[in-house]
Amino acid sequence: MELIVTEKDNAARRIADILSGESYDSSRENGVNVYEWGGTRCVGLSGHVVGVDFPPEYSDWRDVEPVELIDASVEKTATKENIVATLRILARQAEEATIATDYDREGELIGKEAYEIIREVDEEMPIRRVRFSSITENEVRSAFAEPEELDFDLAAAGEARQTIDLVWGAALTRFLSLSSGQLGNDFISVGRVQSPALKLLVDREREIQAFDPESYWEIVADLEKTEGGEDFESQYFYLDEEGNEAERVWEEEAADAATADLEGATTATVVDVDRRSRTDAPPAPFNTTQFIRAASAIGISAKRAMSIAEDLYTAGYITYPRTDNTVYPDDLDPEELLGEFSGHPTLGEDADSLLESEEIEPTEGDEETTDHPPIHPTGEIPTRGDVDDDEWKVFELVVRRFFATVADDARWEHLRVESEAAGRSLKANGKRLVEAGYHAVYPYFSTSENYVPDVEVGEELAVGEVECTGKETQPPRRYGQSRLIETMEGMGIGTKATRHEIIQKLYDRGYIESDPPRPTQLAMAVVEAAEEFADRVVSEEMTAQLEADMDAIASGKAELEDVTQESREMLEEIFENLADSREEIGDHLRKSLKADKRLGPCPECGEDLLVRRSRHGSYFVGCDGYPDCENTLPLPSTGKPLILEEECDEHGLHEVKMLAGRQTFVHGCPLCKAEEAGEGPVLGECPDCGTQEGGELAVKTLQNGSRLVGCTRYPDCEYSLPLPRRGEIEVTGDRCEEHDLPELLVHNGEEPWELGCPICNYREFQARENGSELEAIEGVGEKTVEKLAAAGIESIEDLSTADPDAIADDVEGVSADRVRGWQAKA
DNA sequence: GCAAGGTC
Question: Looking at the keywords, is Magnesium present (predicted)?
C-alpha cells in the first residue's frame, strides 16, 4: 500500500479525486478522513501536528528564572494526537509513502514532521516528496510521475525559526510578566513578529502626540468660460523658495493679499493648457494581503474577510486564500473560467463582454511563488441561498478581481489649465475617464471625474467667487488594520496566514484598543522597555537576520545548531543587561497598566479613580486609595468598558464606552451618570398599588445607567417595566386608552422609535418571547400559539401546568391528547 | 499561562 500525506484534508480529497479518477472511497479513522483507491491511501494533516516546547520542569513560571530558558532543551511533542495516531496506523500498513504537503518552507517542515512519524514505525520504507503549486490535474499528475526527496535543509531552516521564536518569546515574555507581577491571564508578551508590529503603532502614536499643527490658507476661485457660462474651480498657487508649485499659504497677510487681488480681478487669462492621456492598467491577481485590503475597502474587516474566504474555499467556490503569489499558474485557462460565469444572472454579462475580447492576457504581479495560486474563483458559483450577504460580497469581489485581471486598460484624459488674474496664478486639474476598461467589471476603485472645460491659451475667463479657507496641518493618521498588514508585509514580518491574527493578538493582550487600533499605555511601556534593553525584538532586523540565516541553512551554508546557538548568545547578553533593571521595568509596566484604567481624580480623596473588575467579573469604578477611600461608581452590566480620550468638563473624568459587539454604546462620565440617577417624569397611576396606596409610575434611571418605569413607592411596591438602554426618552401627549399611560418616544439615531405605552410595549415583547418559546415545541405553529394565548397559555410553564382537558375545551381544534403530547415534549 | 507557524 502507498500512503500519501498532505497538509490539510481539503488537499487530500482533491488529490484523491485527481489520482483516482474520482473513484475513491473515504472512511474515518480517529476523526480523520482517509481516502482510498486501488493500492493507495491519502490522508490530510492539519498543518503542524507536532510543536516545540520546553521540558515540563520549566513550565512553572515562578520556579524558573527566565534566563534559564535560554539554554533549556527544546522538545517536539505531538499537538494533534488523533492525526499522529492515524498516521502511525496507516504507516504500519504501508510499503511506501509520499509527502505532498504545501510547496513552501513551512510545508517542507510539516512534511518532515510526517516523515519522522512514519520513520518511527518503519525504518526502511521509501519516503518520497512531491511538489506542486496548485492542485490541478496537470500539476499533480506530473509531480507524482517524478517524485523527489524531502529537503531536510529547508525543513531545518523552519526548525531554526521555531526554536529562536520560542526561546526569545518565552524568555522575554516571562521576564516582563514576572517583573510586573502580571501572571495568569494578563501576562505581558513579547515576540519577533508581534513586538515590531506593536512598535509600528506606538511610533505612529508618538508622532501624533508630538505633532504641532500649523495654520495655513488655501484660496480657490471660480472661473467662468464667458460663452456658455460653464464654470470650474481653480486653485491659487505660487512658486516657493525651491521653485516648486505650492498651494498652501503659510501667512495670513499673504493669503489676504492674494485673496484681495483675486477678488479685485474681473477676468483671468489662460496661460497654459496641458492635455495628456494616461493609461490605467488593471490590478494584479489577489494575494492574501491585497485581498484583505480590497475587502476592508468595502467594509469587511481583515478577520472577517479571512474567515469568509476560508468558508468559500472549503465550499469549493474560491481557491486557497493564504497565498503570496500574484501570478496565475499556466494551468489556469482564463477563457474557460470566464465561460463558467457566462449566463449567470448578475455576473454573466460582464464575463461575456470579456470573452468578446480578441486576446485575453491576465495581469501579473511582482511576486511569483510556489506556495499556491493567487486567490481566484474556481468556477463553482454559489446560489444566493447558499451564502449570506457578506459571503456573497466577498465572493463577488474575488470574481470581479479575476475579471479585472483579464480586462483591458482604462484610459483617463487629464486636462490642466493654468491662468492668471491680477498677477496671481491659478490652476485647475480636470480628469475624465474616456475608456472604462477594467473599471467596467471591477467597480471598487473610485472613477470620480473632475470637470474642467475646454479652453485655449489666451482665452479670457470671468472670475467669480473667491474663497479663502483657513486650515491646519493634520497629524499623521493611525494605521488601519489593512494598512498595518500591508506595512508588515513590506517589512517582511509575519506571514500571509498570520499577520491578521497577530493584530488580534495585540488586542487580546491589551496592547491596542478600538479601531483603527490605538496603543495603550501598557503597549507604550512594553515597547519602551524593549527598545532600551532588547532592541532586536522590536525591530524588523531580527526577522531579516533570521531570514538570512534560514536561507543559509536551506542552502547548506550554515548549520541549524550554529544559528540557534548564536541567537541564544545574543539573548544571554540582553539578559545580562536586564538583570539590574528588573524592578525599574516592573514599576514602569505597573504604572502604565494603572494609567490604562485611570478615569481621573477621585472627588472624595483626590487619588485616581480606576476601572476595576469585581470577583464576579462585572466592571465598576473604584478608587486607587482603597481601602482608605471606599468611593465607587457603577458601570453598565453589558459589555467591556473602553476609556475614551474625551473628558467630562464637570468632573475631569474620562468618558466610558461599553464594547458589546453590535450593542456597543457610549456610557459617558460615570460620575455624571450617577448624579443623574433618580426619578424622571411621572407617567400615571401604578396598576399594582395605585388605587389602594396611591403609587405612581415614573421613568427611573438606576446608578449603573440603566432605566426602567417603576413605582414611586419602591421598595414597598416593586412593579416595574423595562426600557431600552440607549436613547433619550420623550413623554408624548398621547395616552394609551387601555392603561391610561402616555405613549413614549425613544430618540436614538435619526428616526425616533415609537415605543408607545410602556405596558403595551412590554406585553408585546412578552408575547413575542413566549410565542417563540412555545413554537419551539414540535407540532406547535404560529396559529396554535395565537389560539393558546387567547386561552391564557403564553409560556411553556403555563402549558406544562395547565389541565389538558380544560385546554381542549377552551381551544378550538385542539384535543386533550395533543396537549399531552406537547407537554411531554416541553 | 510563554512565540510563530501551520490549519479549522
Answer: yes
Residue A158 CA, nucleotide B4 C1', distance (Å):
11
Which pLDDT score, from 0 to 100, does residue A797 have?
67
| Cβ of A111 near strand B (distance < 7 A) | no
All three cell numbers of A744:
413614549
**CB A109 within 7 Å, strand B:** no
B4 nearest neighbour residue (CA to C1'): A165
Average of per-residue pLDDT across A573-588: 94
Distance A240 CA to B2 C1' (A): 56
For residue A600, give the 3-state DSSP assignment. strand
Catalytic residue list of A: 320
Task: Return the pLDDT at A771.
Answer: 52
C1' of B7 to CA of A822 (Å): 45
Percent above pLDDT 90 for chain A: 72
Residues 435-494 of A with CB under 7 A from strand B: 493-494
Measuring alpha carbon to C1', the residue closest to nucleotide B6 is: A47
* CATH code for the part of the protein at A288-408: 1.10.290.10
- Our measurement of CA A490 to C1' B8, in angstroms, reads 28
DSSP letter string over A70-96? GGS--EEEESSHHHHHHHHHHHHT-SE
The burial of A119, by beta-carbon neighbours within 10 Å (0-12 exposed, 13-18 middle, 19 or more buried), is given as middle
For residue range A381-437, list pLDDT tens digits in order.
999 889 999 999 999 999 999 999 999 999 999 999 999 999 999 999 999 999 999
CATH topology of domain A161-210+478-588: Topoisomerase I; domain 2 (1.10.460)
User: Is strand B within 7 Å of residue A431 (CB)?
Assistant: no
Cβ contact A406:A362 at 8 Å:
yes
Give the CATH superfamily of A776-825: 5' to 3' exonuclease, C-terminal subdomain (1.10.150.20)
Does nucleic acid strand B have an atom less than 7 angstroms from the CB of A517?
no
For domain A2-45+80-150, the question of CATH label 3.90.1570.10 is answered with no
Q: E strands along A70-195, which residues?
A: 75-78, 96-100, 127-129
Which chain A residues 193-212 have CB under 7 A to strand B? 193-195
Residue A785: per-residue pLDDT: 59
Query: Does the N-terminal peptide bond of residue A715 adopt cis geometry, omega within 30 degrees of 0?
Result: yes
Smallest CA–C1' separation from A172, nucleotide: B2
Task: Return the exposure string of A91-116: e unless at least 16 CB atoms fall within 10 Å of the residue's CB, then b.
Answer: beebebbbbbbbbbbbbbbbbbbbbe
pLDDT 10s digits, A326-335: 999 998 999 9
- CB of A187 nearer than 7 A to strand B: yes
